[in-house]
Amino acid sequence: MVGRMFRIETEVDKERSRFLRSRLREGNTAASPVLRSLRGTPGEREVPLQVWALEDDDRVAGGLVGHTWATWLHVAYLWVDERHRGSGLGARLLSRAEDLAHSSRGCRAARLETWDFQAPDFYRKQGYEVVCVVPDYPPGITEYTLTKRLP
Q1: Of 17, 49, 90, 124, which has fewest CB within 10 angstroms of its CB?
Q2: From CA 68, how far away is CA 83, in angstroms rounded?
Q3: What does DSSP assign to residue 142?
Q4: In terms of DSSP H, where are the helices of the chain?
Q5: Distances (CA, A) of 95 to 73, 99, 123, 150, 151
Q6: Rounded-to-integer distance, Cα 108 and Cα 98, Å
Q7: Given a cut of 70, is residue 117 above it in pLDDT?
Q8: Residue 65: strand pairing partners
Q9: What are phi and psi of 3, to 5 degrees?
């Protein structure tokens, strides 16, 4: 085999990123009957899902940012203002997102990541189960991935 020389670059390039994603997507779709069956359906695309709790003066009291894809809800961020923590607002936001994902988008499950100092116990109380633990990510912190089957 003849060795080849390549130029290695490290800059951020959106066009190359899109190219890489499309190639991976093609390969994944070819290899997976499940992913192949999603082609051309609404479940093929990541669709943003956001739920907000606003005070009378339009200040954000809490919010959830995520997306749905392939019959899954992925919660990226859930935050409640310190003044409203312990009031059930976080549970209401999460429940509303799960309901929307299930009823409007056909999602059957949800997933999220949280750190040990954030809210793993909160999510367990909401019916989530730990499926992955990554110690020391970032250093000194444990990351949890949790999932939940939606009704």
Answers
A1: 17
A2: 29
A3: -
A4: 14-31, 33-38, 89-105, 120-125
A5: 12, 6, 11, 10, 11
A6: 9
A7: yes
A8: 50, 77
A9: -70, 145
